[in-house]
């Protein structure tokens, strides 16, 4: 006994007539996962398709799925009403913008649309998973003067949009440090580099909590300066002494002279020159004319 299976052609033909083939229905999301910065605005881009003979009656987003019930419209939720903006249309575009996101907004979001037929509705599942992150500066508590240090602006998930990082020191932007790299490299740090460092993304108002960086004193640096200064000072003094000795020697050579082998001029520290007379060689002719006078006897009166 053989079992004959019913032909499937009538069923296929019926599906094609009503146009409910899954190939005609669908929702496509640009990103299945989105990592957004806290307090930023998130764009959830999507498109949807449906049979051309159908007319769209309602489009909305939801984050709650209740089995057997119609999912609630997110735009009617008090927590989302002021922050949710539908950027799409009733034809193909179903993009929304969600502003001022926080960690409470971390959910999976779905797009839902209904047509003019009772069976003509579709839910884009799986949806878009949203993760919200803040920024944290990872830095060593202290670094020794003259060393290199790297600071990292960290997030809990990889940001979906390309980000340009901005760094701050003591709430003042480091304008020379604006890069797509989330690291700040400080080379040969000085005491002036100490302070409170924070980071942000260009175009966003959120700024990370500050991390304090301390720069400790490096004794070797000042010791080297002292040694160099002492060495330089010692060399300077030695050069001055040598110059003084040379000048003194030259002056002494000029001061020591003889005059007719009788007069010598000798330098003295208290006066420039003085003359020493040699009495043995300076006998005057006056002394040669002196004669011995003997007493004469008295005359008789």
Automatic annotation (TrEMBL):
Keywords: Immunoglobulin domain, Membrane, Signal, Transmembrane, Transmembrane helix
Listed SUPFAM superfamilies: Immunoglobulin
Residue span, Ig-like domain: 126-216
Segments passing through the bilayer: 225-250
Superkingdom per UniProt: Eukaryota
Gene3D superfamilies from the UniProt entry: Immunoglobulins
Residues making up the signal peptide according to the UniProt record: 1-22
The name this protein goes by in its record: Ig-like domain-containing protein
Organism in which the protein naturally occurs: Cyprinus carpio (Common carp)
Organism phylogeny: Eukaryota, Metazoa, Chordata, Craniata, Vertebrata
